[in-house]
Amino acid sequence: MVDLPDGEKILRKLSVGLVQTNNGIEKDGFLKYPYSKNLQRAINYLSFFYLMNGLPIPIGIGELIEKAKTVPLGEWQLNLSDDEYQNELLLDDEGVPTELCEELAAEELDYNNPDSFQRRIFESIKNLAESSKNPDITYTQIREFLVKYPLSTQDERSDILLDVSLKSNIFKELVLDEVYQDKIPSAYYVNGMILRCELCGNLIKNQKNNLTCTNKGCEFNRLSNSKKQKKYQELNPGQEVRQAHFGVRRYMSIPGIPELKLKDDLEKIGCKVTLWPGLDLCDLFVETPSDFKISIDVKDWKYPHELAKNVNQKVMPIKELESKGFSSDLYCYVFPDIRKKENPNYKNAFKSACNPKVEAFYAKDIIAKIKEIWS
Questions:
Q1: Residues 109, 111, 117, 118: is their CA dihedral positive or negative?
Q2: Which burial class, exposed, middle or buried, applies to 94 when counting CB atoms under 10 A from its CB (0-12, 13-18, 19+)?
Q3: How far apart are CA 8 and CA 43, in angstroms?
Q4: Under a CB-based contact definition with an 8 Å cutoff, are residues 248 and 254 in contact?
Q5: What does the alpha-carbon distance between residue 262 and residue 269 come to, in Å, rounded to a whole number?
Q6: CB 297 within 8 Å of CB 336
Q7: SS3 371
Q8: Separation between Cα atoms, residue 356 and residue 305, nearest integer Å
Q9: Partner residues linked to 235 by β-bridges
Q10: CB of 242 within 8 A of CB of 182?
Q11: Residue 209: C-alpha distances to residues 27, 188, 204, 222 (Å)
C-alpha cells in the first residue's frame, strides 16, 4: 500500500484543483479548457495511487467531478486519517466546492502562501500602507473595503480612492485594478440585474429557482425564501460591477466578516478595538474598560481539525505584537457562535488538535468573559 500521507496530499491537491476550476467557471460562465493544472496533476496522482492499490482508475475530469459530487470521501479509499471527513463531499449537487473542499485547499490558496495571488495583494496593501502618513489607518481602510465590497461598482471603487490617503493612481493600479478584474457573466443575472447580498456583500445566484449567496457560510442561505427577498441589493450591470478575485474573496474578504461583527459587538459594551494591529499581526486588539487587554484572531472554519492544522502552521506572533505596543493579558482565538450550534464539540476538537496549546472562545463567551472581568 502507498504511505498514508500520500492519500491526504492527493486530496488537498484535488481540492485546490476543484476550487480553481470552479473559480474559472464563475469568471467565464462555463468550464473552459485548458483545465486547472492542479486538477490535472491531482488526477494523475490519484490514478497512480489507485493503480498501486489495485483500484479502478478514474477515466478523466468529467468522471472525477461526478465522483466529487456524489461519493463521500470515506468511499474514495484514500486511507484518510481523519474520520471527520468520511461522510463529506467535495462538490455540491451544482458542482460548487463545499466548505470542506475550500478548507482543504486553504494551505495552498490562502494569503499565508507566499506564491498565492492574494499574498501578492496583501503585500501590496502593506507596502502602500507603510508608505503613507498613517500606516495603520490606511491599512484598515483598504482591508475594510475588501471585506465590505467583494462585489463593487465603479462609484464605490472611486469613493475609496478619495477616502484613502495614498497616491490614488498607485493604489488603483496595484490593488483595485488587480483585485476587481472579473465581470459578472450574464448567466448570473436575475431579471437583468446583479444581486448583491446585504449580509456579506457577495454575489447571489439563482440556482434551481432558489436564491443562493455564493458565500456558502452566509446567513442568507439559511433564510426562508420570503425573507431572502429583503436581504439583497439589485445592481445594474451598467454600473461597471466587478467581482473581487476568488482568492481575495474567499481568503481575505469572507474571513473579515466575523472580524468586523465582533469588533462592533465589543465596542457596544464599551471596549476600544483596534482592527488588524501592527498591519495584521492579529485581527483585533481589545482594550476593556477595566484595562484588561486581549489580542484576538477570529477564525470561521467549519472543520475544527482543518483549522487547527492551519493555526499550527502560523501561530499568533506574540513577541511581534508586544514589540509593536500590543502586549496583552490574553491571546486567544474566537469563533462565531454558529460553529457551536453546528458542532457542540467544535472548540474542544480545535484545542485538542493545536500544538502548542491555545486559548479559544465562542463570540458570546468572550463577551461574557470581558463583562465578568469588568464587573
A1: positive
A2: exposed
A3: 14
A4: no
A5: 11
A6: no
A7: helix
A8: 14
A9: 194
A10: yes
A11: 21, 12, 12, 15
For residue 331, what is the enclosing H or E element? strand 330-335
Q: Indicate the pLDDT class of residue 133, thresholds 50, 70 and 90.
A: confident
3-state secondary structure of 186: helix
Nearest 5°: the CA angle 227, 260, 27 is: 65
Q: What is the pLDDT of residues 325-356, one digit of tens each?
A: 999 999 999 999 999 999 999 999 999 999 88
Cβ neighbour number for residue 306 with a 10 Å cutoff: 22
Q: Which domains does the chain have, with CATH numbers?
A: 4-109 (no CATH), 115-249 (no CATH), 269-374 (3.40.1560)
pLDDT digits (tens, 9 = 90+) for 284-334: 999 999 999 999 999 999 999 999 999 998 889 999 999 999 999 999 999
Counting Cα atoms < 13 Å in the Cβ hemisphere of 15 gives 22
Nearest to 22 by CA among 107, 106, 102, 97: 97
Q: What is the pTM of this model?
A: 0.89
Question: What DSSP state is assigned to residue 75?
Answer: G
CA dihedral 121→123→113→157, nearest 10 degrees, is -20
Residue 266: is it exposed, middle or buried by C-beta count within 10 angstroms (0-12/13-18/19+)?
buried
DSSP H or E segment with residue 62: helix 61-70
Average per-residue pLDDT in the chain? 89
